[in-house]
Amino acid sequence: MGSTSDSLRVDDDGSLCAVVGNWAEEKYRILALYDELFSSGMKNKWDQRVYIDLYAGGGFSRVEGTRRLLKGSPIIALTVTCRFDKYIFCEESGALLAALKARSERFAPDAEVRYILGNCDANIGQIVQAIPKASPENRVLSLCIVDPFDFGLKFESLKELSKMYMDFVVLLAIGMDANRNYDHYVEGHSSKIDEALGNAHWRERWKAAGTRRSDFRRFLATEFSRSMESLGYLPTRYNRMKWVRSDEKNLPLYCLALFSRHRTAHRFWDEVLKYGTDQPDLPFE
Predict the structure, then answer these.
(1) Cα 244 to chain center, whole Å?
(2) Which of 73, 130, 77 is nearest to 108 (CA)?
(3) What is the spatial distance between Cα 161 and Cα 42, in angstroms, rounded to a whole number?
(4) In the structure, how many helices (H) and strands (E) does the chain have?
(5) Cα–Cα distance between 164 and 147 in angstroms, integer?
(6) Quick check: 225 and 236 in contact, CB under 8 A?
(7) 269 touches 167 (CB < 8 A)
(8) What is the rounded CA–CA span in Å between residue 97 and residue 16?
């Protein structure tokens, strides 16, 4: 499997797009590798493969301070070798969703796409209804990308989606958001992490552990994995999560984690970690 960097670059089409840090290219490269393995590997094992993007954006992203444009996660998924049978894109911004629709129709005019405008958590019912109904004659497997801007994801939404055959690739913003706002979350009364983890008892476990503040990232990643295990997902070990770091100081920003009930998906993920950029140990400075 070769580098996917070149295939991520796109020309400016003049439409709206989000601005991202330079490190986002690594994230998109990881997603592209996994989408390719998942879509092709599951093609003959399921009757329908569905791709869901809860924070879809506009389809393109501009690297901050440059003119470089990259495919966002929806366009990456639309341009895999073995296209998914259905796509569901949810985006809160009407302007970004309009840009995504125009780009999707240009890159994959024949793809079956459902666009949902609004907050993914408020519209989780619509997202669920858009997924084809499974039956013994119609086996449906979905891949859901959860890529929020901060640690503001809602575990209850993932729980609702997990009632179906659903794999997740989740961005955990535990370097960018949770660790930076440590005092606010641990000592304050914010419910943000409670909602992300699906429990309100994590503070007691954190304080009882008596570990260093620098271990907070590992703790939150492990807690989230435990929450997903409670839904029947296989354990995702901390060292199998893919950390993405800043270019300037090599600081850990967020990690990408796979959650699946199938060992095959974890084998795909191992391939991604192998062929993606090196995975150094996370320093607890």
Answers:
(1) 13
(2) 77
(3) 19
(4) 11, 11
(5) 20
(6) yes
(7) no
(8) 10
Euclidean distance between CA atoms 213 and 210, whole angstroms: 9
Say how far apart CA 72 and CA 57 lie, in whole Å.
8
Task: Identify the CATH class of 5-275.
Answer: alpha beta
Q: What's the whole-model pTM score?
A: 0.92
Strand order in the sheet with 242-245: 113-117, 86-91, 48-53, 140-146, 166-172, 252-259, 242-245
Q: In angstroms, rounded to a whole number, what is the distance separating the alpha carbons of residues 86 and 163?
A: 18
Q: Which amino acid is at 30?
A: I
Percent helix / strand / coil, the chain, rounded to 5: 40, 20, 40
d(C-alpha 148, C-alpha 36), whole Å: 22
Residue-level pLDDT, tens digit, the chain, 285 residues: 444 567 899 999 999 999 998 889 999 999 999 999 999 999 999 999 999 999 999 999 999 999 999 999 999 999 999 999 999 999 999 999 999 999 999 999 999 999 999 999 999 999 999 999 999 999 999 999 999 988 989 999 999 999 999 999 999 998 877 778 888 888 878 899 999 999 989 999 998 987 788 789 899 999 999 999 999 999 999 999 998 887 767 778 889 999 999 999 999 999 999 876 544 333 322
Sign of torsion over alpha carbons 141, 53, 124, 162: positive
Helix/strand/coil for 178 = coil
Q: Where are the alpha helices (DSSP H) in 108-164?
A: 124-130, 155-161
According to DSSP, residue 69 is labeled E
Q: Which residue has the tokens 């003959």?
A: 44
SS3 for 82?
coil
